[in-house]
Known about the structure:
It is a single chain. The protein is α+β, with helices and mostly antiparallel strands. The chain has a single domain, classed as Sandwich (Immunoglobulin-like). It contains three helices and nine strands, in the order H-E-E-E-E-E-E-E-H-H-E-E. It has helices at about 5-30, 120-125, 130-145; strands at about 30-40, 40-45, 50-55, 60-80, 85-100, 105, 110-115, 155-165, 170-180. A hairpin with a 4-residue loop joins strand 4 and strand 5 (about 85-100). The longest helix is centred in the N-terminal third of the chain and has 29 residues, at about 5-30. The radius of gyration is 22 Å and the shape is flat.
Amino acid sequence: MSDTFILYMFLGLFLWGVGSISAVLLRKYMKGNIKIRLSTRNFYYGEMIQGTFTLFAKKQITGHELVVHLIWYKKETSYSKWKKNTRNVEFFRVTQSIESGVVYESWLRRDYDFQLDIPSVGEVFGDQSVPDLWKSVFGKLARYSLKHMTNSNYTWQVRVDLEAEWLDLSGKRDIFVTKKDV
């Protein structure tokens, strides 16, 4: 094979890859978006999050379910010989269903209110009703995590998902949850 043929083949594959990724992103952009608004991003354990999100449908969307989640997760990174692997390990999730089976018309902009309860410290990190073995293993990890809440690997997030035909929409907003000093 000549060098010119290999160059054209490589260039064609590269353009095909870029075009495929661009098409998916363009489809998502053309479908609409979800924007979350909160009065603050700083909360304490046991508080209630009150917020609003706006669903903007640029095209008609057949929605299966619209839900709001409160998620606490840790991003873990591991390395093998030539590869970096990242995964999210979920510790906590609360889900509130907003509506299901709705057809959203083109150029629709609709606001929704939501409320999610942040669990108390005892609910997240264990209390007296939890078996001692579980408290000793998970409790040590949890107390360490509570002391080091500013660690960027641990994230609280409010997330809104619309499961729909063709392509799903989602919006997310990171929040900060801390222990109230007594």
